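Researcher: Here's a chain I'd like modeled. Treat it as a single chain, no partners, no ligands.
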Amino acid sequence: MNCPSCGRELSSENKFCPSCGAAAPLPPKKLKSHMTLAVLTTVILGNWIFGIPAIVFARECELAAENGQRAVAARFSRRALTFSLVGGALCAALWAFMGLMTFLGKGGF
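Model: Modeled as a single isolated chain. Structure tokens:
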């Protein structure tokens, strides 16, 4: 990591440049690919329609991050999270509906 003001190399412990006193840049945040959530949506909840695309988006996020394409990786990360959450919410709604129908004596589906 280099100082944004004078260009001197800084160690990771430096908060300020010892040469010019400028604030050291913050290291970029690590992007989450959401692969674990995508796999849980697919395997545990059984939602293949949303789970498989979520896994694909999560893997594309990892590949883009490895290649230094941060903006592309962030876009795939958001897509993986969206597909995982929507898939999980739909499964929860379906399970709640089936439980209600069973409770009311309709037998579910």
